[in-house]
UniProtKB/TrEMBL annotation:
Residues 22-142 form the Knr4/Smi1-like domain. SUPFAM superfamilies: SMI1/KNR4-like. It comes from the Bacteria. InterPro entries: Knr4/Smi1-like_dom, Knr4/Smi1-like_sf. SMART domains: SMI1_KNR4 (SM00860). This is SMI1/KNR4 family protein.
C-alpha cells in the first residue's frame, strides 16, 4: 500500500471523512485470535494507522471503539459467519450493496486455494466470487479516488 498516496487522498477529503485512529498491535492480535485468522499485511497496516472509518458514503470496516456494530470488523465477521456462511478465511472490508461485500483474503486463505491479500466481491449466493483488486491498498485507493 502506498501510504503517502493514501494519506494524501484522505487529507484531501478530510472534511468528508472520519477515522477512528491508531489501533495497537495487542488489539489487532486479540482480534485475529478471536476470529481465528491472520490479517494480511496491507489490511493490518490500515488497522494500525486508521482503525476503521469512512470518507463520504464509503465505510471501511476495521477495529475501533464499538464492538457490537458496523464498522467493527469483528462484529461484521461474526454476524456474516452466523447468518450468511462467510468463509472463515475472508475479511469483509466494505458493504458494497445488494448483499455483496468487498472482502480481503486472509493470510491463511491459500489453504483454500485463494491467494492471500486479494479483494473479492463476496455474496453468499455466489459460489466463485470475482476478484476486484489485487490488494487491499489498491482497492482502498481506487475507492477513495471515486468519492
Amino acid at each position: 500500500m502506498n501510504h503517502e498516496k493514501l494519506r494524501k487522498l484522505i487529507q484531501e477529503k478530510r472534511d468528508a471523512s472520519y477515522f477512528f485512529g491508531t489501533v495497537d498491535d495487542t488489539t489487532i492480535k486479540k482480534a485475529e485470535e478471536k476470529l481465528d485468522l491472520t490479517f494480511p499485511k496491507e489490511y493490518r497496516e490500515f488497522l494500525e494507522e486508521y482503525g476503521c472509518g469512512n470518507i463520504g458514503p464509503i465505510e471501511i470496516f476495521g477495529l475501533g471503539p464499538n464492538v457490537e456494530s458496523v464498522p467493527n470488523v469483528e462484529w461484521v465477521i461474526k454476524n456474516l459467519r452466523e447468518t450468511r456462511d462467510l468463509p472463515n478465511y475472508l475479511i469483509p472490508v466494505e458493504n458494497i450493496g445488494d448483499g455483496s461485500y468487498a472482502v480481503v483474503s486472509s493470510a491463511n486463505s491459500s489453504e483454500h486455494g485463494v491467494m492471500e491479500g486479494i479483494v473479492l466481491q463476496w455474496n453468499s449466493r455466489v459460489n466463485d466470487p470475482p476478484k476486484i483488486a489485487n490488494s487491499f491498498g489498491e482497492y482502498l485507493q481506487e475507492r477513495l479516488l471515486n468519492v
